[in-house]
Amino acid sequence: MLWIQKQKARWAKLKVLVIKVLPSLKVAKKMKLKFTKAWISFLKIPLPLNVYKEVLVSLHQTVIPYLSKPIMLCDFLTRSYDIGGVVSVMALSSLFILITQHGIEYPNFYGKLYALLEPSIFLAKHRAKFFQLLDSCLKSPLLPAYLAAAFCKKLSRLSLSVPPSGSLVITALIHNLLRRHPSINCLVHQDDTDETTKENSEAERETDVVSVNGLGIDPFDEEERDPLRTNAMRLILFAF
Question: Model pTM?
Answer without folding.
Answer: 0.73
